[in-house]
Amino acid sequence: MVKETVLGEVVRFDIARDIAGRGRYWTTCYLVGDTLIDSGCAHASARFVRRLAGRRVERILITHAHEDHIGGAGAVVAAQGGGEVLAHPDAVAVLADPRGRQPLHPYRRVMWGWPRPVAARPIREGDRIEAGAYRFQVLHLPGHSGDHLGFFEPDRGWLFSGDLYVGGRDRALRPDSDVHAIVESLERVAGLPLHRLYPGAARPPSDPHGALRDKIAFYGELGTRVLALRARGLSEGAIARALLGGPMLIELVTMGHFSRRNLVRSYLRGGNRGQYRLHT
Fold this sequence. Notes:
Layout: E1 2-7, E2 10-19, E3 22-32, E4 35-37, H1 45-51, E5 59-61, H2 67-70, H3 73-80, E6 84-87, H4 89-96, H5 98-101, H6 106-111, E7 121-122, E8 128-131, E9 134-140, E10 149-153, E11 158-162, H7 179-190, E12 196-199, H8 208-231, H9 236-244, H10 249-253, H11 260-269, H12 271-278
Parallel strand pairs: 4-5, 5-6, 6-7, 11-12
Antiparallel strand pairs: 1-2, 2-3, 3-4, 8-9, 9-10, 10-11
Helix pairs in contact: 1-3, 7-8, 8-9, 8-12, 9-11
């Protein structure tokens, strides 16, 4: 399932596998001129390629190597008869060998599918990508994953944030995510001269700086409460129940890969660093 929305110079694609006539666990990518930012999931790649018919894609910028963001890259490059894929060095290895480098949990295979291998060129913090009328500054924004990049178009004040910012108030986290790094990356992009924030899911907020400040404040307040309950001797599970409510559907669907306890554990892994960051 592919939905297309024109946002001025930016075309947004919301992509999901069609299950029983409904899209499940949507992901988002963007077309800016001849540059595609992320590529959706493998299960929807054939539909996405058809939607791109008649439009030239010269390059694909990858925010991170999770399968819902890289799954269509190989199909798009093949359909276009070429094109450049650019990603963090750690993501380049995953793109070249998705099955070998990034085994998928059952829910990930069902919802998004195995990406097709594709060659990519590494890009790093500080690189600049010239793309016709646009230029993108590469920002390393770890937290959601270690290989996470953001792409900032300084002339227009656009930030393509991938899964660093997706809106809402998180109640669950992957075990390999780092909430302290997420906060640091959010604080960094909150200092940019932003006009538009284009997330890897959820709608672009009307007030990007306000949305980022709200997200940072939420993480900070939650972290302070996590640390306070830990100091009183509560277990990770007890803290999760006290602060994040009862069991969540996503915990069941992902068999605990996304969980409240992972979020609590990430705060506690920070030690003094986490306590300092989250009390300021």
